[in-house]
Structures are given as C-alpha cells and as structure tokens.
Amino acid sequence: MNLKEFQSLHLELLPNGVLQMTMDTGQKKNAMTAQLHRELANVWGVIGQDPAIRAVVITGSGDAFSAGGELNWVKTLIEKPTTAEGRRDFSDFDELLAIPDGMLNLNKPIVAAINGAAVAGGLAVALMADISIVAEDAIICDGHIRGGIVAGDHAALMWPLLCGMAKAKYYLLTGRSLDGAEAARIGLVSLAVPKAKVLMTALEIAAELAAGPQLAIRWTKRALNGWLRQAMPIFEHSAALERLSFVHPDALEALTALLEKRPPRFLGEPPDRG
Predict the structure, then answer these.
(1) 239 within some domain
(2) Long-range contacts from 267-271, C-beta under 8 angstroms, 24+ separation
(3) Distance (Å, rounded) from C-alpha 113 to C-alpha 124?
(4) Among 21, 54, 129, 259, who pairs with 210 as Cys (CB 3.0-4.6 Å)?
(5) 187: left (phi over 0), alpha (psi -120 to 50) or beta
(6) Where residue 118 falls among pLDDT bands split at 50, 70, 90?
C-alpha cells in the first residue's frame, strides 16, 4: 500500500502491524471536508488488501477527532444545482454509504482514539470502529437535527444497538451533546479515559489485537457484525432520507443562521404530518 496515496489521512504502519491513521484536514476542529470524506470512503478497501496490516487505530490531529462537516462543503451539498431537466445530482450518495460499509466489512479490527470533539460525519467514523476509546471530556454530538438534516450517516444503524432506543431517540431527535464519560456510561463507546491517555490506550489495544490469533479475531468481528448487517436496510433508508433533506429549506436556513451567528428559523413544512 502506498502510504502517501491519501492527503487528509496520515498513515503510518508501525512495526507491530498496527496502522495509525490520523485525520488532518487543516480545518478548525478537524472539520470533515469533501477530500477527507472521499478518502474515508476509499481507504478501507486498500487496507484490507495489505497483509502487513493487522489492526487499525484511527484518530484526529490536534485537539479534535473530527467536528462535523466543513461549512463550505456542506453549502455545496445543500445548493447543488439541478440539470436542465430538473434532476438533482446525488452522485455522492455511494460515498456516504461506503464509509460505514467499508469499516463494517474490513477484515481487520479498527480502534478509534477519540481524542476530542466528534460530531456528525466524524462521529460516524468514531462509532463505526470495532472498539472506541474516548477522552472523558470529549464532546460527542450527532448534530444533524440542528442542521435541519436527517441523522442518516450512521445513527439509525449504530445508536439503538449501542445505547438502546430510548437514549438514541433522546440524543438524535434533540441534537443534544454528551461528553465522553457519559457516552461510556450509556454504552455508546467502549471506554472513557483521561485525554492524555486516549491514543496510548488505543494503540495498546490495537497492539494486543495485532499480536492475537488473526483468524479468530477477524471471524469474531465478522460474526458480531451480523447484528449490524441485519440493520443495513435501516441505515440505507436513513442515508437516503438524509440526502433528500438537503433539498428542504430547513437545511439552508440552519446553515445560513450558523454563518450569520443567529438562531435558526425553521419555516419549512414537512411533506406530511405523519
């Protein structure tokens, strides 16, 4: 594997077979860019083909894991032009599906070192990992609802199974945030540790996995992920609704309000009352 193939992902293969993957977009709080999103859709297939890699640790540069979509990129998604025939471009939909699907089906364990804020698309990567280590004070927030957008990039797939339907609805319908300690308490993540120990703990766990019986570990992951594969139609439904909600006026209003530093005024009506 060419470790220089990716621009927003810094990839370092350690001698013990652990690939340390660091997201670095150069944006405030490591915000998700179109480049990073595209690379996260493609990297898992490349990793799966490299026999030297036995486990993966994914983290963020600086003091954040990845705090949501970069605003200019989100703006392009909301304001995508239609064709002369009135058709809207949904070509990025496959990319949206590819990140959870790639992580789910990777034949090697993934450990997330959630060193700081993880929001929206960044949170999807954090929670799709097989084991998640989070800083006790890290901010965790799905955030889609606050943007007038359906929580569709991972939430309907992961949250109910990880922390139960009651907590999932509470956080996903309100858009409220929680810290890493509370996320661990409700079972949303595997373990919460002090911020200074997040990466070290993740690397230690990955090293243990890399040194363990590879067939047994990989097939155990595959078997456990059967629960998630059963829910993939739910995920694909939510992802489709997310992309459709970018067309709704509420999405543009939420973005405009954020840029203008004012509360949003959600005026658009839903397509039905059900």
Answers:
(1) yes
(2) 268/148
(3) 13
(4) 54
(5) left
(6) very high
Q: What is the pLDDT of residues 180-230, one digit of tens each?
A: 999 999 999 999 999 999 999 999 999 999 999 999 999 999 999 999 999
Least Cα distance to 151 among 228, 251, 238, 41 occurs for 238
Q: What is the dihedral of CA 26, 157, 139, 125, to 10 degrees?
A: -30
Angle between helix axes 121-128 and 155-163 (nearest 10 degrees) is 50
* DSSP, res 31: -
Q: Please give the pLDDT value at position 195.
A: 96
- Write out the two tokens for 138: 């890290």
- Mean of pLDDT values over 121-139: 96
DSSP label of 270: P
Q: How many structural domains comprise the chain?
A: 1
> 211: which 2 tokens?
């040194």
The C-alpha atoms of residue 121 and residue 38 are separated, in whole angstroms, by: 12
Domain range enclosing 17? 9-260
Tokens for 24? 């670095």
Token pair 């993540």 in the structure block, residue:
189
CATH number for 248: 3.90.226.10
Q: What's the pTM value of the predicted model, to 2 decimals?
A: 0.91
Structure tokens at 117: 């804020």
